[in-house]
């Protein structure tokens, strides 16, 4: 038996990770400045409260 299944597993993991990175980049690219401002305000207010 060969190691082809192990190599395939690593290839599949790398492919899924690449797809996930592309999805995250696409999501972050669609966010507007208002979304980021709201998020930052929430982080600041949360920091003061906790």
Structural commentary:
This protein has 50 residues and is mostly helical. Helices cover 88% and strands 0% of the residues. It contains two helices and no strands. It has helices at residues 4-30, 33-49. It starts with a helix and ends with a helix. The model has no long low-confidence stretch (mean pLDDT 86).
Topology of helices and strands:
Layout: H1 4-30, H2 33-49
Note the overall shape. elongated
Portion of residues in beta strands equals: under 5%
Helix content: over 70%
Radius of gyration: 19 Å
Q: Helix count, per DSSP?
A: 2
Helix-strand sequence: HH
Number of distinct beta strands: 0
Q: In terms of structural class, how would the helical and strand content be classed?
A: mainly alpha
Short overview:
The chain is mainly alpha-helical and 50 residues long.
Primary descriptors:
50 residues, mainly alpha, elongated
